[in-house]
Design goal:
Layout lengths: L1 H17 L17 H37 L3 H39 L6 H4 L4 H29 L26 H10 L1 H11 L12
Length: about 220
């Protein structure tokens, strides 16, 4: 009897060990990281947007109260016309909400492809596709400018190249140009400290991202 009980208590443990972990086989997406100053500016913009949303919600509440008071003073015919107009506006708003959700999905997909954090979504998604595209272009221009500055520093650093061929190879997880450890902030730091080392790490990683520090146009 004791042996039978031991088997019964051990069996669920074995089944649990055989279950795959939730994150097994999943690859982490590279993300663009920002300096503390950049993150502070982004946080300030997000706080401003949240404050505007709260003000908007309070205004909508006051408008609803005012509308209810006006409807109470209307005749039956006037109230019927007003309610019909409300239904038409509700349908229009539903279509606008649907368009916004579709635009949000498209913008998220673009951010993921570019390796940009989804925290940037409120700042990059515009009122329409054209405005969203313009904001993304502005971000690309900013990143390209930083890349150009880093490239110029690299070219200056080549005036004093260091020797060695393969001796400075680093692991994949320590190379910020690899897909597994992609990090623009660390790329910039390495470029500033040792441009030749950065060049070697780029050659080792062979990055495929649309933009990275040290990319030669």
């Amino acid at each position: 009897m004791e042996n039978g009980n031991d088997v019964q208590t051990q069996q669920p443990v074995q089944e649990q060990d055989n279950q795959p972990t939730q994150n097994e086989g999943q690859e982490e997406k590279p993300k663009v990281e920002f300096t503390p100053e950049q993150q502070k500016a982004i946080s300030a913009l997000l706080d401003s947007k949240i404050a505007k949303e709260r003000t908007k919600a309070e205004q909508e509440k006051q408008d609803a109260i005012k509308k209810a008071e006006q409807r109470a003073k209307m005749s039956a015919e006037e109230r019927a016309k007003a309610e019909q107009k409300d239904r038409e506006e509700a349908v229009k708003k539903q279509q606008q909400d649907l368009n916004r959700k579709l635009r949000e999905v498209q913008t998220k997909s673009t951010l993921v492809d570019k390796g940009i954090s989804l925290d940037m979504l409120p700042l990059l998604m515009g009122a329409n596709d054209e405005e969203t595209s313009q904001r993304l272009d502005l971000l690309d221009q900013y990143v390209n400018k930083k890349v150009q500055e880093a490239t110029e520093k690299l070219m200056q650093g080549k005036q004093n190249p260091t020797g060695g061929n393969g001796s400075n190879t680093v692991s994949v997880n320590d190379n910020p140009w690899t897909e597994q450890a992609f990090n623009l902030t660390k790329q910039q730091e390495i470029f500033n400290q040792d441009p030749e080392k950065a060049r070697q790490m780029i050659a080792q990683a062979q990055p495929k991202q649309g933009f990275y520090v040290g990319k030669m146009n």
